[in-house]
Amino acid sequence: SGRFDISDPKKAIFDWPGVYIKAKFEGTSCTLRLKDGNNFYNIRVDDQSVQVLKTDTATIYIIAEGLEDTAHTILIEKRTESNIGSGEFLGFILDEGKSLLQLDSIPERRIEFIGNSITCGYGVEGKSAEESFKPETENAALSYASLISKSLNADYSLVAFSVKGV
């Protein structure tokens, strides 16, 4: 959900804050293929937060393992905004013989927010308003836009950039 460049069918390129990929898979583990190096991502499995992923020079990230051998949902959400950089989603690696499944439901509502740093979740996890910006303290999932959308069970897209107005 959000704005992705999918002109190349082998990868989805994204840079806006709050873009996310939600999938359902079967098996005991899920590995993410992601080329990035700058951004932070919230990783949720079965609606439980499992980690904040800080990307580096790797392209393979184990994001869930040791799960019960059943169906699971996964959510990968970009916390940081465009000025931190873009990422390339290259797919999932699942247990041998396992596959992606159809999601149980897709929200009927879709909301697009156009905004600035507040919409990006700029510094929302900082210790105080005086703290200097760090990508580690930005979390688009905690912005008013994301929280409103989640409360309305809506997909959302954040077209937002700090310091730039409409």
Q: How would you briefly describe this protein structure?
A:
The chain has 166 residues and is mostly beta strands.
The spatial strand order of the largest sheet comes to 5-4-7-2-9
Tell me the helix content: under 10%
Our estimate of the beta-strand percent is 35-45%
Number of E-state strands: 11
Radius of gyration based on Cα positions: 16 Å
Q: Are there runs of 5+ residues with pLDDT below 50, and where?
A: none
Mean model confidence by pLDDT: 91
Query: What does the main sheet amount to?
Result: 5 strands, antiparallel
Distance between the termini: 22 Å
Structural class: mainly beta
| Number of DSSP helical runs | 2
List keywords for this structure.
single chain, mainly beta, four-stranded antiparallel β-sheet, 2 helices
List the helices and strands and how they pair.
Blueprint (H helix, E strand, L loop, with lengths): L11 E3 L5 E8 L2 E6 L4 E6 L2 E7 L5 E5 L5 E9 L8 E8 L5 E2 L7 E7 L1 H4 L23 H8 L2 E7 L6
Describe the protein in words.
This protein is mainly beta and 166 residues long. The protein contains 2 helices and 11 strands; from the N terminus they run ββββββββββααβ. A 5-stranded antiparallel sheet has the order 5-4-7-2-9, with no helix packed on it. A hairpin with a 2-residue loop joins strand 4 and strand 5 (48-54).
